[in-house]
Design brief:
The complex is a heterodimer of chains A (about 130) and B (about 425). By secondary structure, chain A is an alpha+beta fold. Chain A has a single domain, classed as Alpha-Beta Plaits, CATH 3.30.70. Chain A is built from two helices and six strands. In chain A, the strands form two sheets. A four-stranded antiparallel sheet of chain A has the order 2-5-1-6, covered by helices on one side. Chain A has a two-stranded antiparallel ribbon with strand order 3-4. Chain A is flat. The relative contact order of chain A is 0.31. By secondary structure, chain B is mainly α. In chain B, about 65% of the residues lie in helices and about 0% in strands. Chain B contains 18 helices and no strands. The radius of gyration of chain B is 25 Å and the shape is elongated. Classes of the chains: A alpha+beta (about 130), B mainly alpha (about 425). At the A-B interface, strand 2 of A face helix 7, helix 8, helix 14 and helix 18 of B.
Chain lengths: ~130, ~425
């Protein structure tokens, strides 16, 4: 079963670029190790970090003229998507286990951050008809 | 390995012989990786030598002997490495392989014993499928990875972990007793069945460069059937695959959209596969030892016989589902039984059966239950009830083509 794990930045705590360098390094190392473990367990499909919300653009097609483009960040949303994984694992339970692990990435002082991770199953092909 | 069958100095034989040689070497040494390396080297030697020197009299025996020699070389190298590493200790003598033991013995059981190993109960189904396709099916890791839409490195890791699990369980060398052999045989059939389903499902996705898993499953099922022609469930499974595959062209539209059985263009059904599957299941059922694969094949054969949806022999299909329910406590079978009952006794009879299934925890929240209810409500003329159930099912399914189908049904009932 494939799942998308979406890591949200909850808009709480100090911005990551203001962290003590050793804490930032521990956080980055944790993410590398997490991805490596996913590869080694045969569950890794894809992982990407996203550029910051400052560079985001919201695009809407408009009738009769060019599209409306709004530059980010968008004041109405404090939360934003920081990155995502696609994993292929055996069960939803296993996906929850992995999401919980990612959520516990170390923050300032090495304490677990409890990052909100949204877990969504990736749509697949139908079961065979009976 | 994709070798052209003609004018190749016997290279087309390699794909067929590869699992037998690997199985024989594995039985000899008990080390999956070592046996695989040795059999790969033997195959490479054949690719180099056969076109030049001609096909050996006994190609299987030739490959096995070359593989044995490679294994022996490897063990010797391992042995001297260990001796260098631990000079002071008396090293454990490795299992030497005297030439006399290396008789060409790639008999029919070697492919089966390799299948037993690959479908080992210690493995999860996805791992067993991957290992079977790799070791028995001869597919490359890249081909298997693309069939499952995962990176090659991920699939390589899965396969290597599967080999390690088998190694750790220590079972491959043990000759299973008759009872265990039957269990292992059932496990092989289950893995082939899942492989077929995977192929059946994935064919709805992007096809580019993807191995036809359903065809691979059929090829392997044919091989098992040849090796164990007396096993009725193997024949039943092969027939079921053929009869299901026969309808594959009709079951999706040009955009990959689902076309249910009753709306399929039956002229697209593959008559050769239908005939082969029907003949096989008819001959097998006459032998008496009826199991679940055979019953499912018999149901598929009845669908295949109907020239139009309205000609379907529902009473007999209902009876077969009743039989299948007695054999296996499977809620999906119970759902299909409810559909067949509705077709024979009317939608209310089917809906009454569904109500009993509501309490089954395995079906709670399953989209199939809601989808079947929706169809039966539509059949009963309850449009608003059907719409509500189609929408519930659409919200629950994890399949995109299925969701599109269910939403389209709901929309059609609301506006039509």
């Amino acid at each position: 079963m494939k799942f998308m794990m979406m890591m949200h930045y909850a808009g709480e705590g100090p911005a990551i670029h203001t962290w003590p360098p050793q804490d930032l390094k521990a956080h980055i190392d944790f993410m590398h190790a997490f991805n490596r473990q996913l590869s080694e367990s045969g569950e890794f499909v894809e992982a990407h970090g996203l550029a910051g919300p400052e560079q985001a653009k919201l695009v809407r097609a408009r009738k009769g003229s060019g599209p409306a483009i709004t530059d980010g960040p968008f004041p109405e949303s404090k939360e934003f998507l920081a990155g995502f994984w696609i994993i292929d694992c055996e069960s939803e339970q296993r996906a929850i286990e992995l999401a919980a692990k990612a959520s516990a990435a170390p923050g300032i002082g090495g304490a677990a951050m409890s990052i909100p991770i949204e877990l969504r199953q990736v749509m697949c092909a139908p079961d065979p008809e009976a | 390995m994709s070798l052209e069958p003609a004018e190749d100095g016997g290279l087309h034989l390699l794909r067929e012989l590869a699992p037998r040689v690997l199985g024989a070497l594995l039985r000899r040494c008990g080390d999956f990786t070592a046996a695989e390396d040795a059999s790969q080297e033997a195959l490479l030697a054949a690719v180099e030598q056969w076109p030049r020197e001609g096909l050996p009299a006994n190609p299987g025996g030739w490959l096995f002997q070359v593989g044995c020699r490679r294994l022996a070389d490897r063990l010797r190298a391992e042995h001297s490495r260990r001796r260098r590493e631990a000079l002071a200790l008396e090293p454990r003598t490795p299992a030497e392989l005297p030439a006399a033991e290396c008789e060409p013995e790639t008999d029919r059981d070697d492919t089966l014993s390799l299948l037993f190993t690959c479908c080992h109960p210690a493995l999860s189904p996805p791992s067993a499928i991957a290992l079977t396709l790799r070791a028995v099916g001869g597919l490359t890791t890249a081909e298997i990875a693309s069939a499952f839409l995962v990176p090659e490195a991920t699939m390589a890791q899965r396969i290597s972990r599967a080999k390690q699990s088998i190694q750790a369980s220590g079972v491959p060398l043990a000759q299973p007793g008759p009872r265990e052999q039957a269990q292992r045989h059932a496990a092989v059939l289950h893995v082939l069945y899942l492989t077929f389903n995977e192929g059946y499902a994935s064919s709805a996705g992007p096809r580019l460069l993807r191995v036809e898993l359903a065809h691979e499953a059929i090829r392997l099922a044919r091989a098992v059937h040849r090796l164990a022609p007396e096993d009725c469930e193997t024949a039943g499974l092969l027939a079921l695959m053929l009869l299901t595959e026969a309808r594959s062209r009709a079951r999706t539209g040009p955009q990959g959209e689902l076309i249910p059985l009753d709306a399929q263009d039956r002229s697209l059904w593959d008559q050769d596969k239908l005939a082969e599957g029907t003949a096989l299941i008819t001959a097998t059922l006459a032998q008496g030892a009826v199991g679940p694969y055979q019953v499912q094949a018999a149901i598929a054969a009845l669908h295949g016989e109907a020239k139009r949806a309205a000609d379907t022999d529902w009473p007999q299909i209902q009876a077969l589902y009743t039989l299948l329910l007695r054999m296996s406590d499977n809620p999906m079978v119970a759902l299909n039984h409810a559909v067949a009952t509705a077709m024979v006794q009317g939608p209310r009879a089917g809906l009454a059966l569904l109500e009993q299934l509501e309490t089954d925890e395995r079906l709670a929240g399953h989209h199939r239950l809601a989808a079947v209810r929706a169809h039966l409500l539509e059949f009963a003329g309850d449009r608003s009830g059907a719409v509500a159930s189609f929408l519930v099912a659409a919200g629950r399914t994890t399949s995109l083509p299925e969701r599109n189908y269910l939403l389209t049904k709901a929309a059609g009932l609301q506006t039509g």
